Amino acid sequence: MAGYPARPEGIAYGGDYYPEQWPREVQEEDIRLMREAGVTLVSLGIFAWALLEPAEGRYEFGWLDEILDRLHAAGIAVDLGTPTAAPPAWFSRKYPDSLPVTREGVRVGTGGREHACSSHPAFRRATVELVGRLAARYGEHPAVVMWHVHNEYGAPLGECYCEASVTAWREWLRQRYAGLDALNDAWGTLFWGQRYGDWAEIDAPRWSHTVVNPAQRLDYARFSNDEHLAHYRLQKELLGGKPVTTNFAGTVNCKSMDLWTWAGELDVIANDHYLDGERPDNHIQLAMSADLSRSLGGGAPWMIMEHSTGAVSWQPRGIAKRPGEMRRNSLAHVARGSDAVMFFQWRASRFGAEKFHSAMVPHAGTDSAVWRDVVALGADLRTLGEVRGTRVTAEVAIVWDWVAYWALELEWRPSGDLAFLERMSAYYEALWRDHVTTDFLPPSADISDFSRYRVVVLPSSYLLTEAAAKNLQRYVEGGGTLVVSYFSGIVNEHDTMHPGAYPGVLRDVLGLTIEEFHPLRERESVTLSAGGAARVWSERVRLTGARSDQTFSSGPDTGHPAVTRNDLGAGTAWYVATAPADLRPLLTRIVDQAGVTRPRDLPETLELVRRDRYVFLINHADIPATVPDVTGLDLLAGTPFTGQVPAGGVTVVRIPL
């Protein structure tokens, strides 16, 4: 792997740049303003296929040659895009069957983006031809420091149900199962008489008037992920040499791609993150996305490839950022391991679907608070250049599994309130508010990966393989602390129940069985013996070695265990059989008993993250925050740290060696 790009030095700063939208005089102003703001890296050409190949086989590179040369002369590096996310009109007209088909059977139209099926042979041929020419022409251009493949795979195009996809799907199944007997067994096709006798009988799991086989749906999600990944690999093989990446469409929010399967294919992890503008504590959502991005790369420096200076155009309400919020957001990404701060986009567009999306150069121009904040942030990032390459360490890990996400949210589960992100966010937020830095792991991680952490949390692992469960048990027996939330360990990789009582493959490590699930009614709650309410879920837990830590005080399981603890080998496994309204008291007790190092006596609104010897202090409150036990040089101020972080401010402290 090529690794992180060597240039630009320090923390890269910039955003998506679309010079093709502007006349020459504006392009010249752009270069001048980029230098004023301290921009060092721009993403270029991401949606430019129609300009680069205006007709099939006719290529026009002159405009791109010119802007690359101009950027290089100004000392600005380029992340050069391959524009396959926006096939030109001539392509869609010539190959109309390349347009994706929804699960409901509707063929999508043009006028947007992501309107070609990744499995379609003509799309793949055109991709090879165009990207090969880009690689040959610009692979050695001094401005180009990395390649940016496609754009946000899986958003909005996740699954396609066109005939090219179905053909590829059958071949994928042959490779996966070798024979129909294995497929029929994995899918449980004896149920509802679905047994297949010929590969040609297998269709995509299209919309039906009732529930479609969940194992088939799950495999189609895997297949769709793999087809997009194959399209990415096709391009990466042509590019070579310099680092190659693609921008994830939000690590937390992009449900359709299994990003663990992508991570090893990227030379550097690149993520796009946009705040939920209406959520008051959306900085916690940002932290979760950043931690997951860092974890996908195994802790190596990554890139925030897109975020916003202010409002976005596609949410129900375009909420502008409050004073100081853009700076806090940007430096929070750096705190959690990003060695770049990039935005969509450089200059706000006058036309198109995203003309109301904020930008580094807003419609108001340079006489604006946004522009002044952009220039100030550039100065901050130059000061923080020495942070580049340092790493964040964590003593707690959360298990995140996109396949379990897909499986959990198929139809006919015991409760409509079972939602993957809801439980993941609940556990992450409780740890964040307790100032616990968190990594993420796939369930397939090796035992040595689990053993690096004092605590491992499974908030939502409905699907869990037997091998993963055995690793978790070895982790506990070796001295680790495991925390498991309800409805975990229930099915295997084919969405087939593990034999025996719930919780399936987690029975032994948790020291309990579950006699029956008792989902709660909408807005119903139960109380717990330790105080506080819980919602969504209750169940009849029977202890087979574990001991009860808390019981249900009301509801269908009154008097029965609600929280259990099982001491196994040198470690401990906890089980939480409901959704407490406040997880913090329990998780605080667990991480403290496990010896997790965390800051003490800090306000909940003060975010503290450490990258090696650099401590990032981000104050999300409207009043100053006092930080004890941190001494060193305040890098941004250039003076010794006083122990105070201003209201809404950010301080970065270099701790003495």
Could you characterize the architecture of this molecule?
The chain is built from 18 helices and 28 strands. A 9-stranded parallel β-sheet has the order 5-4-3-2-1-9-8-7-6, covered by helices on one side. It has a 7-stranded mixed β-sheet with strand order 11-10-12-13-20-19-18, sandwiched between helices. Helix 6 packs across helix 8 (214-239). By secondary structure, the chain is an alpha/beta fold. Helix content is 30%, strand content 18%. It is globular, with a radius of gyration of 26 Å. The model has no long low-confidence stretch (mean pLDDT 97). It starts with 11 loop residues before the first strand and ends with a strand. The relative contact order is 0.08. The protein has 4 domains: 25-37 and 269-388, no CATH class; 40-265, Glycosidases (TIM Barrel, Alpha-Beta Barrel); 396-593, 3-Layer(aba) Sandwich (Rossmann fold), CATH 3.40.50; 606-654, Golgi alpha-mannosidase II (Immunoglobulin-like, Sandwich).
